[in-house]
Design brief:
Blueprint lengths: L1 E5 L4 H12 L3 E6 L7 H10 L4 E4 L5 H10 L5 E4 L6 H6 L1 H21 L3 E8 L23 H19 L3 E8 L1 E3 L18 H9 L6 E4 L11 E2 L1 E3 H16 L7 E6 L5 E2 H12 L5 E4 L14 H7 L7 H20 L1
Parallel strand pairs: 1-2, 1-4, 2-3, 4-5, 5-6, 6-11, 7-10, 8-13
Antiparallel strand pairs: 9-12
The structure holds uridine-5'-diphosphate-4-deoxy-4-fluoro-alpha-D-galactose (UFG).
Uridine-5'-diphosphate-4-deoxy-4-fluoro-alpha-D-galactose binds next to helix 6, helix 7 and strand 8.
Length: 342
């Protein structure tokens, strides 16, 4: 089975490639290296003792995408990660996000439609729910107006796939709505490489702990939550990677009930920002320098998944604890610094 992973050298993509190679899939990665580096291939090779095929390809280049599929007619499934993901940047530059996240999806779907049969996994996000009225969040919770162009690209991306699936029964697709992915492969050889100042909590914590940032700012302690800080569902990236393999098997083995399905991928447990900080301190024995500041615009109070559909219908369940995920993030951070210094 040959699987195309777009954006396969990025944070989540690289962990999924490792899982696929370990399950003996043939993997071809395309990536434009806009938010990743070619060194990630070496990390994957060291972990798996084999490398995926790799092609530097920018999915915004429609002709190049078409040419790629002409040369690769034997692809059995596509896992589509290639997209931009910085919320703030998307507000500053919406067209970049619509081009990177929507045009590319359309070009990909146009090529998939030419195949007699195709399977697609789409990276979606819990951001589609906004502040859900009921917690934990089920897949039937209403999709709320997007807070940012980034969030909108995830909503529109799902709608585009749903529309195509309504008329094209040769396309089977699954959208995975990720909650908050954190951590890294236990080897510490691949992980999240934020460009510039991290926007997400866990990379900010690890960079502060290692001395790259002076202090973590906790955005708000006046939310109606257990300790006043916002609550999220943090999922270990290896659990998330495994969810993609399970979803792919569902597609390939024709276990779908309808040809477009959606699943929440989270742990089902919400943790506050302060709980994450305390768990990190416990896991590492370090004391983290932090202060409470104002809320961040666009943040919701609480979001955590009802994972029953993924558990019962897809047959997937998360295994790792928050502490294990934070330990792996810390290992990766220490390795990343050691690699920089050597
Ligand atoms: N936080 C801090 N300090 C930081 C960074 C984050 O206190 O330096 C807090 C945030 O306010 C939030 C929590 O930590 O309460 C988690 O923040 P992240 O930025 O790590 O994650 P988000 O929940 O904001 O992000 C998620 C997804 C994005 C998606 C976004 C939309 O990871 O893909 O929700 O709301 F776009």
């Amino acid at each position: 089975m040959k699987i195309l992973v777009t954006g396969g050298l990025g944070f989540i993509g690289s962990h999924v490639v490792v899982e696929l190679l370990n399950k003996s899939y043939d993997v071809i990665v395309v990536d434009n290296l806009s938010n990743s580096t070619i060194d990630v291939l070496e990390g994957i090779r060291t972990i798996c003792n084999k490398k995926p095929e790799f092609e530097k390809l920018d999915l915004r280049d429609k002709l190049a995408v078409s040419d790629f599929f002409v040369r690769n007619q034997d692809i059995n499934g596509v896992i589509h990660f290639a997209a931009s993901k910085a919320v703030g940047e998307s507000v500053e530059n919406p067209l970049l996000y619509y081009e990177n996240n929507i045009n590319t999806l359309v070009y990909l779907l146009q090529e998939l439609q030419k195949l007699p049969k195709s399977n697609l996994i789409f990276s979606s996000s819990c951001t589609v729910y906004g502040q859900a009225d009921v917690l934990p969040i089920t897949e039937s919770a209403p999709v709320k107006p997007a807070e940012s162009p980034y969030g909108n690209t995830k909503q529109v991306g799902e709608e585009i796939i749903a529309d195509v699936c309504k008329v094209d029964y040769s396309l089977n697709a699954i959208a995975l709505r990720y909650f908050n992915p954190i951590g890294s492969h236990h080897s510490g050889l691949i992980g999240e490489l934020p460009l510039g100042t991290p926007q997400n909590l866990v990379p900010y914590i690890t960079q502060t702990a290692i001395g790259q940032r002076e202090q973590l700012s906790i955005f708000g302690d006046d939310y109606p939550t257990i300790d006043g800080t916002a609550v999220r569902d943090y999922i270990h990236v290896m659990d998330l990677a495994n969810a993609h393999v399970v979803a792919l098997e569902r597609l390939i083995k024709h276990k779908m009930v309808v040809n477009f399905e959606t699943f929440n991928i989270g742990t089902g447990t919400g943790s506050s920002v302060l709980e994450v900080v305390k768990t990190f301190e416990k896991a590492t024995g370090l004391e983290l320098n932090y202060k409470i500041v104002q809320r961040r615009d666009g943040d919701v109070t609480a979001a955590y998944a009802d994972t029953s559909r993924a558990n019962n219908i897809m047959g997937w369940k998360s295994k790792f604890t928050l502490q294990e995920a934070l330990e792996s993030a810390w290992k990766w951070q220490q390795n990343a610094i050691a690699a920089k210094e050597s």
